[in-house]
Amino acid sequence: MAMAQPRRRRSRLGGVGWWQLKQDPILLLTVLLVGAALLLFIVYPLVRVFLLSIKPGDKFTVDIYRQVLNSWWLRQSFYNSLLLGTLTATFSTIVGFIFAFALNRTDIPLKGVFGQMVQLPMISPPFMFTLSVILLLGRNGIVTKALGLGNFNIYGLNGLVLVQTISMFPIAFNTLNGVLQAINPDLEEGALDLGASRWAVFRNITLPLSVPGLASAWLLVFVNSLADFANPMVLGGTFDVLSVQAYLQFTGMFNAPRGTALAVMLLLPAMTAFMVQRYWVARKSYVTVTGKPSSHRILKVSPWLRWGLFAACSLIILVILAFYGTVIAGAFVKTWGVDFTFTLEHWRYAWDVGLDSIKSTLTLAAIATPVTGIFAMIVAFILVRKQFPGKKILAFVSMLAFAVPGTVVGIGYILAFNEPPLLLSGTALIIVLCFVFREMPVGIESGVASLMQIDKSIEEASTNLGASSSYTFAKITLPLIKPAFLSGLFFAFARSMTAVSAIIFLVSARWHHLTVLILSQTEIMRLGAASVLSLILIIIVLGAFALMRLAVGDTINRQLAK
Known about the structure:
The protein has helices at residues 4-23, 25-54, 63-70, 72-105, 111-117, 128-137, 142-146, 157-182, 185-193, 198-227, 230-235, 242-252, 256-281, 303-330, 345-385, 391-403, 406-416, 428-452, 457-464, 469-480, 482-498, 514-523, 527-561, and strands spanning 333-335, 339-342, 418-419, 422-423. By secondary structure, it is mainly alpha-helical. The chain has 2 domains: 16-52 and 345-562, MetI-like fold, CATH 1.10.3720; 62-285 and 299-338, MetI-like (MetI-like fold). Strands 1-2 form a two-stranded antiparallel ribbon. A two-stranded antiparallel ribbon has the order 3-4. The longest helix has 41 residues, at 345-385. The protein is globular and about 75 Å long.
């Protein structure tokens, strides 16, 4: 009897899942459609990438990998990618923690301004800061010339670490900000009351409780650094990284097997970091349970720490604003570094060459955004509220796209959808699908977090009264998670407008993208036109951000009024 009990328990749980699917045909159809979509547009392209790398001809072989490993310059590109990712993740995590600690544990001035400004890099084109660095510190850079640094070279590892740190530290900040907000300040205040020094409290309480967040932030930035394509493409110089080499092998040298092998090599560390972050760090619990509610309070810190953190945050914000200001200035001067005469010529040129790209980008983003938001909420709903076989597998696959570098996704889509019956290359649909399945993980995470806070008895009451799952989701669940839904929409729109690493493989003469045009203008050193196009892109995204804030704010106000 003792040995039979576990078998009955497993069978009973499995029976509940199958029984619920049989009793709810809408749920069954939803699970089947979601699973099929994830397999087709996430798993299948990755399988095609891997298969081409081990089967370039009629038989399986690892010769491509042997050639890659025997090529010192390709091995060096792999090491360079790891080095760049490690340095960027380390510096970004440090800067992000400084900001999060200053905003949550001190009373520094201008906290509201810092909290808004720190998000600016998240809504910018991924290589806008590279453009700014070239204008400031390049061979004709205004700082380079002003200081007489004729031999200074910003291209390479140092420039990439600077640009990636400034553009990616908000990822670390957003992670650590939530971690520090969740730490009960009573623990720190209690230690201070017992005579511990502020440094001892930080070293023995605050920092250890922040370790999971620090590790998670580091790994997330590391994955994003590995996936970055545009910054190394423009600013890398002789410092080759794997994402750029995979692109060049695939498109420039037309060596698809070698390009896919490099993409697989790029995927390995990214997937490893993602798995560690997802299934190790995320499962580590440092929860502090007090048994009573606690309000968020600001701990008193010494004046030197308060003003030191204020100075550090101010310096980073000034660098960000200087980069933005440089792009704005570059859009209105004749020849940067040579002739600073005011001109609108760049605007006329950018309008001539970029109008079609602007229209295409807006159209593609407008189509992809609602699809991404709705699909993400549906997946979040069935993951949180429903039980069915294969639920954990579906959850993992749905988040898989977040860990896959854009270069790998772009190559995978070209291989998977370049022949009948799925001939999508050159169409708008392939770009929209790429946007949807690349950006939906953030919407899923947001939806899951919101659903976990909603008592499921509200939905159970609807189904008990005879409403179907689809009606309950549309009329009850979705309105309750509207803020998360709108946040997911904004993120999907912003990322669709600023994406480059994946869609550079997918654009065509009919459907171009603004970021690809900015990248091409930067490569041929038409920096004025690139500045104009970047500024237009930022204005569009900021406008969408403002509308989203208004929509979320109205929702929150109505909820408070009730």
